[in-house]
Amino acid sequence: MTNLLTSYEAGGPGHDEMLQSTGAAKAAWAQLADLVDLHSWSQMSARRGEVVRLLEDHGVQYGGASEDGQPWNLDPLPVLLDEAEWARIEAGIAQRSELLDEVLTDLYGPRRLLTTGVLPPEIVLGHPGFLRAADGVTLPGAHQLFLTAADIARNADGSWQVIADRTQAPAGMGYAMEDRRVLAQVLSGLYRKARIQRLGPFFHSMRLALREVAPPRAGDVPRIAVLTPGPYSETAFDQAYLSAMLGFPLVEGQDLVVDGGRLWMRSMDRMEPVDVLVRRVDAEYCDPLDLRGDSQLGVPGLLHAARQGGVSVVNTLGSGVLENAALLTFLPRISRELRGQELLLSSAVTYWCGERAMCSHVIANLERLVIKPTFRSRGQRSVLGWTLTAAERADLAARISAAPHAWVGQEPIEASTAPTVADGALEARATVLRTFAVARPDGYQVMSGALARSATDGRATLVSGTSSAVAKDVWVLSSEPYAIADPWVQEGPPPAQVVASISPRVAEDMYWFGRYAERAEATVRLLRAVGDRWDDFHAQRGATGGRALAVLMDALARIAAPGPLAQVLLDPSVPGSVAYAVNRMETAAASVRDQLSADTWLALSSIDRTLQAERERTGDDDDGAAEASAGGLRGPVLARLLESLLALQGLGSESMVRDVGWYLMDIGIRLERAQHLVDTLAATLTQRRSAAVDSLVLESVLIASESVITYRRRYQTRANVPTMLDLLLVDGRNPRSVRFQLDRLRQDLAEVPAGGSGVAARDRLLADVEDLLDELDTAVVADTDEHGRRRRLADLLDSIGWRLRELDAELTRIHFVHPTPSQWLDAGSWGAA
Amino acid sequence: MSRTDASEARHFHLVHRTTYTYPDVVTSSYGRALLLPRTSSGQVCHWSEIRTDPVAAEIAEHRDFYGNRSSYFAINESHTVLEVVAESLLTVARKAAQVERIPATPWESVAHATRSLRSTGDQTQPDHAAAVVAVTDGALASALVEPDDDIRAYASPSFPPGRLVGHAIRDLTTRIFHDFTYRSGSTTVRTPLGEVLERREGVCQDFAHLLVACVRSMGLAARYVSGYIETQPPPGVPKLRGVDASHAWASVWVPHGGWVQTDPTNDQFVDNRYVVLGWGRDYRDVSPLRGIVFTEAEDSSLSVAVDLLPITRDELEELRQR
Prior knowledge:
A: alpha+beta; 9-stranded mixed beta sheet; 23 strands; B: alpha+beta; 7-stranded antiparallel beta sheet; 8 helices; globular
C-alpha cells in the first residue's frame, strides 16, 4: 500500500501550504499527519465519509431548494496557517477595507476621486453597480462599507494577493462557520490539541457592529433582520445559517413594509420595527420603486427609508460598485492619494482596458490573461484567455474594443496548493481563501479564519467563483492560547429580551411543515398496515384475505395515491406519496431554518438516506421498478422512516419553544391528522362486507391509526364499528382521535393572533365539527341499509371532511396573506391623444 | 417661427393631473414623481406642490443625482382611484441657442474633449469639476440609449469631418424632424430604439432618445430632458405637436458652451416656451411618475391631463399670494 503523504511530498513545484509551512502551522501540519494519519487511505476515506454524513445531517446545501441544489462539498483537511503569517494578511485586509470604505464614501458623496483625476470617471459611472438612486444615502457611524470579503491567493513567490473584492452582499460566512463545526468533530483530537483561533469572536463582533450601525433613534436594542431572496437562492443555506447564528429573523421582501419613513416587519397581528437590515439580496433588487421595478425580492420605499435614516441597510445600497475589477488597477494610486500609504496586500496585476496602452496590451496578450468584465452578471463571466480558440479571441477583442472601459485583463495567479483528499490519493490543489471583515468604530475586524475553496481538477488556475470547487476550512494557529475578547456572558443588568414574532410567510411555512410531516407519517403507517396484508394475501385474490387486501389497496389509492406500494412510498413525482410529502416538508423547513431545532436536519437527512437507499435497491429503471412493484415493502424500511418521523415529532414537542410558529406547526399537524383519519374511515368503514373481510380491514385501520392496542385492551375479544368510531372519532383521550385533534386545534388557534371578520367564520367551522361529534350516536351511524351501505356515516364523514378543508382555506385567507407588488402603468404620455 | 418674443420673460401656471383607476381595491401604493420643475438656467420655479387623493401618509422631496426634484409619496388608505396632481408657478426667460453663437469648435474636438473627461477626469476642461460627472454620464451608454452601428450610420451624415459642432447639432435635429413621422401612440416606453429607427415614426420621447443616441455614437455627451412645451398657436402658424402634454428633448455638451438644448420633435432650439422638469441619461432617470401598488386588481387604467397656461405677471403675483 502506498503512503499517501510520501507520494504527496514528491509532488510538483509551486508553493504548497503544507510543504512550505512555517511556525505553529508547520507543527500543526505534522500533528495533523500524525493524529489524522495522513499516510493511510483508509483513514482519509473514513474521515471523508464522516464529513459527508455530518453535512447531510445538518442539511448543508449549495444551490438552494431547486434542481441545481447539491450537497455542500467540504474537504476533511483544513488549510493550516501560522499566526504570524495570518497577522500580515489580517493587517492587509483591514487596511484594504478602510481604503474601500473611503472610496465608497467618496463615490456616493463628493466624488472627488472622479473630479481630481485619481480615478477615471467612466470606471464608476459606467458600472451598473453604481446606483445613482442611492446617491446621498449614508449610514450612521464611521464607516459606509459594513462588511467586506476578499478572495486572496498565494503567488509562487509566497506572497498573498487579492484576486477580487466582494462588497455587494458577501456570501460564505455561514459556510465558514459550518465547515468549522464539522471539522471540529471529524478532527476532534487535533482540534482540541492545536491552538486554533476561533471564529465565534468575529460573529460576536458582527452582532455588536450591527448595533453600532443602527439609527440613533433605535436605542440600545435595535431590531435587526436578514433579508434573503428565499430558499431558491444559491446560498440559501449560508443566509439561513448566518441569521440563526446571529439570532436575527430571516425575512423575505414580502415580509417587510415601509411606512412613515421606517421599515417594518409584517407580523401576524402587528408591525414590528426593523432598524438594521442585513441584505443578502443584490441592491438592484431591493426596492422595486426606486431600483429594478420588476423585482419581487425587495421592499418598495426601502431606499427612501434608508435616505430618511429610518433604517440602516448593510451593505449600503450601491456598495456593489466596489466589486468593479478595474478598481484593482487604481487602488495603489488611490491609497497613496487618500491615505499616503502603500497597500500591504497587493492585488493581482490588472489592466484596465479603458486606458489605451493597457487595452492594447490586453488585446495583444489575450491568450495568457484572465479577461473579466468590470461588472459581474449571469451572462458576463471571467474568461481564461488560453482556453479560447482564435475565433473566440477575435470575437472577445471586438467586444472589448466596443466598450473598453467595461473590461479588464488580469495576470493569472498560480495559486498555492494544499493537500486535498481525492480518490485514493492526496492531491495538491490550487486554493483560494475568502476573507471577511466587518466595520467597527475603531477599524475593521477580520475573521480569524476564512472560507477556502480548492479547484476540483488538480492544478487548474482558480478564478474567483464558487460553483465547482471543494470547500476547505482555514485554521489559524496560535502559539499562545486564545483569549475571548468580548465574552457573551456579561455582568450587569439583564439584557433586554427581543419579542419574537413571525411573518405570514413564515407562519405558512410552519403550518405546511407540520402538515407534510404528519402526512408523511400517516402515509407510512398506512403503507405499513396495507403492506402487511399484502405480504400475507397477495397470492389469494378470491379468498377472504385477498378481498380485504383489495379493499385496503383501493382505500390507499383514495387516501394517498394509486399505484404499486413501492411507488406510493418512493416516487417523489406522485402527489400523495411519502417521498412527495418529504420533499415538501424539506422545502418548508429550508424556508424556516431559523425557527427549527438544528437537529431537525438530522432527522430529515436520515429520512432522505432511507428513501434513497431503498430507491437504489429497487432500481431506477422501469424494469427494476416493475419488479419491485411485484413485491411488497420491506418492513425495516418503513420502521426506519417511522423512527425518523417520530424523532421529528419529539423535537417538535420537546425542543421547540411554544411560540406562534410552533402553534401553527401544530395546527398543521392536527388538521392533517383529522383529515387523514376522516378520509381513511370514509374509504374503509362506510360499506359493510363479510365479517371475515371486515375483521381484517378494520384491524388494519386500527393499526394504521395507531389505536389497535388500546382497542384490544378495551374491547378484548369482540370488535364492531360503533366502538371503533367511539375510539377514533369521539374519544377525547385518544391522541389519534378526531376529537383530540379538534381540542388541540381550538387551543392552538387561541394562541395565534388574528383580527378581523374572518376569524368568526374560522371558529364557526371548528364549532360545527365539534357539534357534529357531540351529537354523534355511533350505534346509529353504524347502521347499514339493504346494500350494506352506512349512509349516515358517509354523510357525517363528508360533513366533517369538507369543513376541515374549508378550515384550511380560511386559515390561508386569514393568516397567510402575502401581498405582491406590481408596477403602476407608465404615466408617460406624449403629445395629444 | 413663432411671434412670441423669444427674449421676453414668460410666466406659466402648470397643472399636471394623473388619475389611476383600479377595478379592485388597492390597499397601499408608493409613488416616485419627477413632476416639480427645477430652477435652472433661464427658468425660475416660484412655487410648486404635489398632492394626492387619497391624501398621502407621507410625502418627501430630495434632490436626485442630477439635481432634479424627486418626490416620494406613500398612500396607505384603501382606494380604487388615485389622483396625483402636480402644480407649479414659473417664470421662463430662456434664450434659444443660435448656431452662430455656439463655440465654433469642430465636432471632433468636442469628441476629443469628451473622451478625455470620461477616461481621465481631464483637469484642463472648463468647469471640469462640475462637468466631469455630467459629461461622462452623458457620453456613456444607458439602459434605453445604447448606440450601435445602425445609430452611428444614421448619425454620420450630420457629422462630416471638420463640421462645427453647432451646425452638426442643428443638422441632426432637422434630419430627425424630417425623416421621422410623429405618431401619437405609435410607440410605448418599451419600444427599442432600433425599432423606431426602422419604422421611422415615434413620439417626442423616441426622437429625444434617438438624438441622444446619435450624439453619443459620435463620441459626444448628451442628455435627455423632460418637461413641457407651450402650444398656444398664434394665428397663421401651424399648431405645434404635443399639445399640453409631457414633452421631451435633448441637450448636448459643448466645451465653453454648456449644454445646448435642442428639440428634434419641433426642429428648433429650446427657448422660453419650454418648461424643464429635469434631465438624466434617458427616460428612466426622469420618468414623471411611477410607482408600486399592492392590489389584487389585475389591471388598471390611466389618464393624464396637463395644462400649461401662460399667465401675466399680475396673474402670477395673484396666484403666489393665494
